[in-house]
């Protein structure tokens, strides 16, 4: 069985396939790294956490299959971060911080949802 996969920023629109990876909330803190004259480049450091939500839906009662598919997508997402901790040069470092897995019934009991919430911690100087 093949399923369509949507990778998006923020919440997906009304056309939702069975597999969704959504890059969502960002929690950011800025602090002083070192005083450089008048506050030029490099004097601030930025740390933030990016939340990535994975949602897998299957219209059946097979929680193991749904959990496995959600876990596979989570592992692939984490592998992207681990393979390039600079996220393509956007940050100095990043790392997967947490991942929380859950399988639940759909609100209308039409099938199962497997969800994974991943937090990626990022660091850069600005």
- N-C termini distance: 46 Å
What would the principal axes of the Cα set say about the shape?
Answer: elongated
* Count of strand segments: 5
**Main beta sheet, described?**
5 strands, mixed
Strand percentage lies at over 45%
- Counting DSSP H or I runs of 4 or more residues, the number of helices is 1
Helix fraction, binned, reads 10-25%
Order of helices and strands: EEEHEE
How would you describe this protein?
The chain is of the alpha+beta class. The protein has one helix and five strands. The longest helix is centred in the middle third of the chain and has 21 residues, at 63-83. The protein is elongated and about 60 Å long.
